[in-house]
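Lab manual, section 2.4: Encoding a predicted structure.

Procedure: take the sequence of the chain (138 residues), apply the prediction step described in section 2.3, and record the output as C-alpha cells. A sample record is shown.
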Amino acid sequence: MNSTEIQIPRKLTQQLLHHAQSSPESEVCGLIGAKNGVPCSCYPVANSAEQPENRFLLDAKQQIAAQVAMREKGEELFAVYHSHPTAPALPSATDLALANQPQALHLIISLNTKGVLEMRGFRIAEGQAQEVILILSE
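Recorded output:
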C-alpha cells in the first residue's frame, strides 16, 4: 500500500462522513478494514480522549474488538480515521506525534467547511505526513 493514489468506495466514504457529522462537537474515530487491499468495512470506535473536542484516542477495548472482527472477516487494517470538528483535514502536531500505525492510511475528515465535508488521506511515519490522493470509486 505505497501508492500515492488510493481508491475509496463511495459507500464507505458516506459512512465516514455520516459518522463525523453525528458528533459535530467532538472528534470521532475508528478503523477501516480491507480485503485484498480494497477498503470495505468501517469500524467506529469510541473516542476516549480527555478532550475529545480536539483530540482522539481509540478506546482500547473497542479497538481490539474491531481488530478481532476484521480478522474474523478475513480483513486487514487499511486505515485509521478521525474527524476535526473545527480544524482543516490536515494532521495536527498531536496527530503526527501519536500516530502509531505506519502501515495504515490515516484519514482525516474536516467539519470546518461550509456545506462541503473534506476528507484527506495521509501516510504518517516518524512524525512526518505524506498526503495520498483519494479517489472515489463505485
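Check your result against the sample. The radius of gyration is 14 Å.
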